[in-house]
């Protein structure tokens, strides 16, 4: 569909891969949307459990009356007329009334690895601390988590003490390490916002064998590794909490 043109000042703004406009994803391949916001994995139709959906649209209730629903993950630069035309081709939305059509938002964040120290203070002005999305973390939970960390550090300083960052083996500690440069290296390294993910956690030595000594393989191996990383995080956070 027709798209709204970027203004000169926003033409070179890169997209965050975790929040792409739907038309950009569609341009990457016919199956891309089906593995993104329209991913049908884990859903079962209770009326016909044996038939699995090819793709889905997630509708999130936005008001108490149940008359307003948000199409999750459908940020777009398409013009309103094109949106209405295309969205009404989705089964079930043929007669939908669109209270508000889609757009995209811009997130502004600082180059935290260069600007912040381990106490999440501005290196050039230590009386200033940063918290949340502007630091370069993605997600509501992640932003709130680093807000908590920053708040504890500021409260400790006010008492004449110091609160260390959470252990980097924990989710909050891994995010702190990310925004202060712990996972950034090389001359071409570029800082980008990040959701929490197991790739941010430091590796650990794991024996991939079950209680009977059998080797753990395939997807079970991935789940086993993540369970070990999570267990370590829950143990290590106790020393900080």
UniProtKB/TrEMBL annotation:
Gene3D superfamilies: FAD/NAD(P)-binding domain
Keywords, alphabetical: FAD, Flavoprotein, NAD, tRNA processing
Location of the MnmG N-terminal domain: 3-160
InterPro entries xref list: FAD/NAD-bd_sf, MnmG-rel, MnmG_N
Organism this protein belongs to: Hellea balneolensis
GO biological process, one term: tRNA methylation
Coiled-coil features, chain-numbered ranges: none
GO molecular function, one term: flavin adenine dinucleotide binding
Cofactor(s) needed for function: FAD
Name of the protein in question: Methylenetetrahydrofolate--tRNA-(Uracil(54)-C(5))-methyltransferase (FADH(2)-oxidizing) TrmFO
PANTHER family: GLUCOSE INHIBITED DIVISION PROTEIN A, METHYLENETETRAHYDROFOLATE--TRNA-(URACIL-5-)-METHYLTRANSFERASE TRMFO
Keyword NAD: yes
Taxonomy, superkingdom: Bacteria
GO cellular component, one term: cytosol
